[in-house]
Amino acid sequence: MVAAHFLSRLRAWPASLFSRGKAAAWIGVDIGGRAIKLAELEPSGGGMRLIRYLIQELPEAHTPQAEVAWRRPECAEWLQAALREVKAGPIHVVLGGTAVAIRREKAPLMSKAELDEAMKWQVKEDLPFPVQEASVSVEVLGEIWDKDLKKQDVLVAAAFTPTLNELLAFLQRCGAHVASVTPATVALWKGVTAFVPQSTRGSVAIVDIGAWDTQVVILKDGQIRLVRSVAVGSDSLTEALIGETVCAQGKVAIDRAKAEALKRRYGVLSDAAEGETEDGVPLVYLASLMRPALEQLLTELARLLDFYKVQLDAAGVSGVLLCGGGANLKSLGEFLSGGLGLNVERLNVLARMPDRARSAEPEAVAEDGPRLTLAIGAAVNHGAALNVLAAARRRTAAAAQGMAFPLAGKAAARWGTIAAVALAAGLAAYAGWLDARIRHVESAWRQVEPSYQQYLETSGSVNALQGTIGQLQHFLDAQPVWEGMLKELGETTPGGIQLDELLITKEDASGRPARLRLALKGTASSSNRFGGQGLIAQYVTALEDAVFFSDMALVRSDARSGDRAGIQFDITGRLE
């Protein structure tokens, strides 16, 4: 397969072998469910300059299989024409949907080669497809401390190899040279952080509403912190409108084309919308049809943001950036803002790129900008982070791309072509050797995998033991405090009270860190002058007045079975 890749690239070499002086341009391609988007960028004065962008609408499809748009003939025809317009340079394509997964992990300090293989097996239980059929890319974000151990903070991307190969085969048939395959969430991350400065401070949620689903990426100080996919897209609203309704003019049938037109014209309508469509359908009726899908989207987003606030960042997100084709739906931002209680901004990356080689009408910029986020993000990334293209294919493609021959004239061109053919044959042979080598390494890994898994389990046990040792050391460091507490407990406990159990915990019922909790179990004698219940009440009051205790309360008291002289009790409280 790698050899076929080089042979297919040979057709494009003669036109490009002798024009290496031109500055590198980055071409990002996003093949979505409703349109193909292409953006070409180049470095300019420390920033980026937009050379051109192209958007081709795809015909309406009636089944979710249209998500894999490269299976449709019209997609190939348009992409071939678009690539000819941008001189068929190397492209950086976006891969999204269920074919790619992103995970953030902690890993022991190790070399890059070891890390790539270790992460592949560490995340295998979290992948929606077998790890044996995954192409994995790893990005080290930095180093962190975990239970007194220094580890690597790692972002892992995994792509389903059969789908990835299908996409690459399609692009090769179109005459494209694929330099990188970028996960959609990574393209969002890179595209937003490059042009939205506030996304690098605090927590910000990026919500990309596509045709079939919605991708959510939450950034913390410019780094990916949480990724989720919501099974509601702009097409969900179109589907909700399809059907037949009765109005003053009689029955009105709404097919897919009419439903799409109504959605784009009216957007999100309020429950008190007034007026009617040209066919006499009340707008309030359209609002009621779209409401379930909108509420589902709002509910999923609210749950995700609440989870992030409780589990990862108590401050929560400061705002939401809305992009994708669905972001152009009228009043959607206001609807989400009211439901989430957050500022929701419609993100237009194109409008944030003032350096553009070709001018565009403001209306076109406003309409196209939110839809180009993924394509621009893939171009900005240009394979620098989390490229899920297979490692061997990526290395050999880079080697081929970097070749240059200082030849001139007809003779030089002829010899250059001969050299190119020879080089292609050599690279094809080398690619075959790499394929065989990869198969050998995979076979060897399957033999050592059980031992490596045992190593990971042992490392986990060692980490847990070190954590326990740290807690014990903390206890010993605080020994004078414990000694004072136990001394005061002994002095406070009156005669007639026998303590049977003392329990101190560090967590409350919800599992979140809290102050130390105290639980006492014992028996009070009934033979004293206060009686058993009176003695217990005095004991609770004495504990509450002591320095080390607070919030003391009696939670249970009852006479001991077979022993009328004693009353068992449970007392709880907190340690100051």
Short description:
The chain is an alpha+beta fold. The protein folds into three domains: 2-137 and 147-196 and 354-442, Nucleotidyltransferase, domain 5; 198-346, Nucleotidyltransferase, domain 5, CATH 3.30.420.40; 480-575, Alpha-Beta Plaits (2-Layer Sandwich), CATH 3.30.70.60.
Structural account:
The protein is α+β, with helices and mostly antiparallel strands. It folds into three domains: 2-137 and 147-196 and 354-442, 2-Layer Sandwich (Nucleotidyltransferase, domain 5), CATH 3.30.420.380; 198-346, ATPase, nucleotide binding domain (Nucleotidyltransferase, domain 5, 2-Layer Sandwich); 480-575, Alpha-Beta Plaits, CATH 3.30.70. The chain is built from 16 helices and 19 strands. The protein has helices at 2-10, 13-16, 73-85, 112-122, 161-173, 184-195, 234-241, 256-266, 283-311, 332-340, 362-368, 373-381, 391-401, 409-477, 479-492, 531-545; strands at 26-31, 35-44, 47-57, 91-95, 100-108, 134-146, 149-160, 178-183, 203-209, 214-220, 223-230, 243-247, 250-254, 319-323, 344-346, 497-507, 513-525, 549-560, 563-575. The strands form five sheets. Strands 3-2-1-4-8 form a five-stranded mixed beta sheet, with helices on both faces. The protein has a five-stranded mixed beta sheet with strand order 11-10-9-14-15, sandwiched between helices. Helix 10 links the parallel strand 14 and strand 15 (344-346). The longest helix is centred in the last third of the chain and has 69 residues, at 409-477. It is globular and about 105 Å long. The relative contact order is 0.11. Residues 1-22, 402-413 and 509-513 have low confidence and may be disordered.
